[in-house]
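**Folding the chain**
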Amino acid sequence: MRAFWLWPVLLFAMLFAAGCDRPSVSRPGGTRVLTDDIGRRVAFDGIPRRIVSLAPSLTESLFALGADSLLVGVTAHCNYPPEARTRTVVGDLLTPDVERILALKPDLVLISVEGNTQATFRRLEDMGVRLFVSYPRTLDGILASISDLAEITGTQRRGKRLVDSLRALRAGLLSHADRDSIRAVVLLSIRPLIAAGAGTFIDEILHLAGARNVAAAAPGQYPVLGREQLLLWNPAVMLFPDDLGLTPAQALRQFPEWRSMDAVRNGRMHALPADVLMRPGPRMFEALAAMHAAVAR
């Protein structure tokens, strides 16, 4: 089962209060101030020289920006690019070792809402660690996160080139997409059945890839589905991360009723690379290209 760890309602209230538009960087007295994804204003007197990243997507972004020389600590899940494995591992996403983080003497810790826990955030905050929180929920949010990291690390020029290239990739795919013409679902877990719903970046890239996300009608961002619900929706395409280890034959052994679904009858069950599909970072646009190809088959 794949677990999704979202911070409590209080944190979402902070997001709502902060609004959708983040103010641009200000420089009172030479100090740069950025607003993170939960509305906190974080001051920077210079470029951080010792950064710990607690999310694979943020680690990937730092490498993509050429700011990896500033990275001193990562989680055990930060496996891309391969060079990320050469950094000190401070634990996993849910239970990083705070003492190990502090031992690295970071001047910045990057943390995510979806992936890390509020307990980790609170403990580091209470210890006076400077934190910058990421929570991109759309492709534009991912681009904004990359731009923020470029501003923080002094790699604005490279960040602009990266963001511009990703926007061009999205535009190229959109020009060939017949959007919303195909019913599709992205399953993230089998036991229980969990799908990507509305308000997620996966929902957005599925839409951009030319499909209608049938799970967007269910309540919640990651709805837990009853077995009969998929039959009622009857998706024409079923997508899932490859780390589920799911094949059509295995799926039918667990869910024999799926034989009547269009996606199964027409051989349109496709596995996508989990590390690309599940990480809101630069490779999310690879997920868009992969999803576009799967929907177009």
Remarks:
- Confidence is low (pLDDT under 50) at residues 1-29.
- The chain has twelve helices and 13 strands.
